[in-house]
């Protein structure tokens, strides 16, 4: 096998691979000789089938396997001899001339093909001892725990029917039947019977609950509302609808007492235990938010320190992933680029920069992790997989089996674990300034921290 580099341009490489006809013939003969001892053909004793007969029967399929093995061997040879780290799977170009390819598959002429690939960039890890990042932190207050208790109580409060003739007020519940129509025609999904509506909960179409205030049991009303422009059902979005509504019952809420008995309805031994659990859960959310913000700050600092050529294919793959999500979100919300005060071309340019940032940071995190010999253990992956399976109650076994049978999917569990370990490693090298802030400040600009990590890069390690 002869391998010759024909192109070295930035991160692009191309190689010409040639397998002489004599080598093809030898490889084919070796495979057929091995096959002779395994096949059973009527009229021949085991191991006594003539190679020429085997070639007539299986020659083309065996040669296809020979070529496949040669391709894999060529890739290993290129990578090993040139000490390359591939950014993606190589592209193989075989002769387009059918006659030429047929001769090669019959070992009557040389087989020549091209291997095109992109390599990962080489760069030095920079010193970050001069980097300082800010970690905003907030502590859960007693008032926030009380607010959480009140929200839980609101979900648990008992309701009882109001006296006959009493009107519904904000905070009450009404049980209704309704039939919706647009321009006099009923529409799919617009009919309900025995539906409970809590007035003031803002869970129905805007205006629906307000028009039930003052209603009494047995009363019939026509409720007219307009579906929001961003309503998920596109055929209803922005349209005015009428609902012929009958009030079956008006219910008023009872009082909930915060005591040990209330706590027991949530599986806690006492009210103090419930409060402690709420505080811990809220603090976990706050700490997670703190982590996300200090991580974004760190990644911003790293992005300022690194500049190197990026593999075009990796950037394009990341951009397509980001752009598909953007388009899907816009379709779901019913918004347009004009609504966002931009154009599609401007938006694409902005999101391509985001894709480039993700790839750059990913490669940086991957190289830092490799240099620091950071590993993710099988036990850690298993714990991550268990956590993922728990997100699908009732389907845990199916989720577990899917990941176990798909190494690429399992790598999606390992990659973020690796990334978080690398981030911890870097945070240990920089100055972290903790800043106490309010809950509102901690959760401000929440969307900005989403998708800012180098997830695409941790895949290089995985």
From TrEMBL:
Give the reaction(s) catalysed: [protein]-peptidylproline (omega=180) = [protein]-peptidylproline (omega=0)
| EC number(s) given by UniProt | 5.2.1.8
Compartments annotated for it: namely: Cytoplasm
Q: Which domain of life is it from?
A: Bacteria
Listed GO CC annotations: cytoplasm
Q: Give start-end of the signal peptide.
A: none
Which Pfam families does its entry note? FKBP_C (PF00254), Trigger_C (PF05698), Trigger_N (PF05697)
Tell me, in one coarse class, where this protein mainly resides: cytoplasm
Q: Where is this chain compositionally biased, Acidic residues type?
A: 443-453
Q: Which UniProt keywords apply?
A: Cell cycle, Cell division, Chaperone, Cytoplasm, Isomerase, Rotamase
Residue ranges annotated for the PPIase FKBP-type domain, each copy included: 171-256
**GO process terms (BP):** 'de novo' cotranslational protein folding; cell division; protein transport; protein unfolding
The record's HAMAP family line, in alphabetical order, gives: Trigger_factor_Tig
Which protein family is it in? Belongs to the FKBP-type PPIase family. Tig subfamily.
Could you tell me what this protein does?
Answer: Involved in protein export. Acts as a chaperone by maintaining the newly synthesized protein in an open conformation. Functions as a peptidyl-prolyl cis-trans isomerase.
The Swiss-Prot or TrEMBL note on domains reads: Consists of 3 domains; the N-terminus binds the ribosome, the middle domain has PPIase activity, while the C-terminus has intrinsic chaperone activity on its own.
The protein depicted here goes by the name Trigger factor
């Amino acid at each position: 096998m002869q391998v010759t580099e024909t192109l070295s341009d930035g991160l692009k490489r191309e190689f010409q691979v040639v397998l002489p006809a004599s080598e093809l013939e030898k490889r084919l003969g070796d495979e057929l000789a091995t096959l002779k001892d395994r096949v059973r053909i009527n009229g021949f004793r085991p191991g006594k089938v003539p190679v020429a007969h085997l070639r007539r029967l299986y020659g083309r399929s065996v040669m296809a396997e020979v070529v496949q093995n040669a391709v894999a061997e060529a890739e290993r040879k290129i990578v090993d001899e040139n000490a390359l780290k591939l950014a993606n799977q190589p592209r193989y170009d075989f002769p387009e001339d059918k006659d030429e390819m047929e001769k090669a598959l019959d070992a009557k002429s040389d087989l020549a093909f091209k291997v095109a690939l992109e390599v990962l960039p080489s760069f030095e890890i920079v010193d970050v001892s001069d980097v300082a990042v800010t970690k905003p932190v907030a502590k859960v207050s007693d008032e926030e725990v009380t607010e959480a208790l009140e929200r839980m109580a609101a979900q648990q409060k008992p309701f009882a029917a109001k006296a006959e003739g009493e009107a519904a007020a904000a905070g009450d519940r009404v049980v209704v039947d309704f039939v919706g129509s647009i321009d006099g025609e009923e529409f799919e999904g617009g009919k309900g019977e025995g539906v409970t509506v809590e007035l003031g909960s803002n869970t129905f179409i805007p205006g629906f609950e307000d028009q039930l205030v003052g209603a009494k049991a047995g009363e019939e009303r026509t409720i007219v509302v307009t579906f929001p422009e961003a309503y998920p059902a596109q055929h209803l979005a922005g349209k005015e609808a009428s609902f012929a509504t009958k009030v079956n019952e008006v219910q008023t809420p009872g009082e909930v007492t915060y005591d040990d008995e209330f706590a027991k309805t949530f599986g806690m031994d006492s009210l103090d235990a419930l409060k402690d659990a709420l505080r811990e859960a809220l603090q976990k959310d706050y700490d997670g938010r703190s982590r996300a913000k200090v991580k974004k700050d760190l990644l911003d600092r790293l992005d300022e320190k690194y500049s190197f050529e990026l593999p075009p294919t990796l950037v394009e793959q990341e951009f397509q992933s980001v752009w598909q999500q953007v388009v899907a979100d816009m379709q779901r919300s019913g918004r347009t680029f004009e609504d966002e005060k931009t154009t599609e071309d401007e938006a694409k340019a902005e999101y391509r920069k985001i894709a480039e940032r993700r790839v750059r940071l990913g490669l940086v995190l991957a190289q830092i992790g490799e240099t620091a010999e950071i590993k993710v253990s099988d036990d850690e992956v298993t714990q991550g997989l268990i956590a993922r399976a728990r997100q699908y109650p009732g389907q845990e076994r199916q989720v577990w089996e899917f990941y176990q049978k798909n190494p690429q999917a399992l790598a999606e569990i390992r990659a973020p674990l690796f990334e978080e370990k690398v981030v911890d490693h870097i945070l240990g090298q920089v100055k972290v300034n903790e800043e106490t802030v309010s809950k509102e400040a901690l959760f401000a600009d929440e969307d900005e921290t989403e998708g800012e990590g180098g997830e695409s890069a941790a895949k290089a390690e995985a």
